[in-house]
Amino acid sequence: MKSFLKKPQKESFGLIFQDYLKIRAELQVSDIKMNGEGINFKVSYRGSVVPFWLAGEPGITAEKAKSKIQEALAVVAMGLTIDLNLVEISQALKDFRTSDIISNS
After folding, report:
1. In terms of Cα–Cα distance, which of 82, 36, 76, 39 is closest to 59?
2. In which region does residue 42 sit, left (phi positive, over 0), alpha (psi from -120 to 50) or beta (all else)?
3. Distance between alpha carbon 88 and the CA centroid of its chain, in Å?
4. In this predicted model, what pLDDT tens digit does every residue of 15-39 receive, in sequence order?
5. Residues near 37 by Cβ (< 8 Å), separated by ≥ 6?
6. Dihedral sign computed on CA atoms, order 42, 44, 45, 51
7. Contact assessment for residue 50 and residue 42, using Cβ atoms and an 8 Å cutoff
8. pTM of the model as a whole
9. CA distance 27 to 21
10. Among 50, 31, 28, which Cα is nearest to 40's?
């Protein structure tokens, strides 16, 4: 009987997830600043440091800002996993708002 299973490819989920975890462990955040317009911070990865800006939300708390930064780091790690660079990822996140997704559903 012929098997329809293929050998795992580099792009298999397991290997991508392993790469993601390695990259996520190397990311560092510094210089966090928060104001009414958003959250600004720097992400360091393998010698590169890039500023990030997350659009603000009215009445955002420090705890919610921390959560948004953690979510952004997950996006950064996934972007690096698929060979985007930090600047591209920073630009993509600049105007992203969770409320845009919710209001468009």
Report:
1. 36
2. beta
3. 11
4. 666 777 788 788 899 999 988 788 9
5. 55, 56
6. positive
7. yes
8. 0.73
9. 10
10. 31
Distance, in Å, from the CA atom of 73 to the CA atom of 49, rounded to the nearest integer, reads 13
With a CB cutoff of 8 Å and minimum separation 6, the contacts of 86 are 43, 45, 48, 50, 76, 80
Please give the Cα distance from 34 to 20 (Å, whole number): 27
Q: How far apart are the first and last CA of the chain?
A: 46
Average pLDDT over every residue of 1-24: 58
Beta bridge partners of 30: 42
The strand pair at 38-45 and 48-55 is best described as: antiparallel
Residue found by looking up tokens 């997830």 in the block: 17
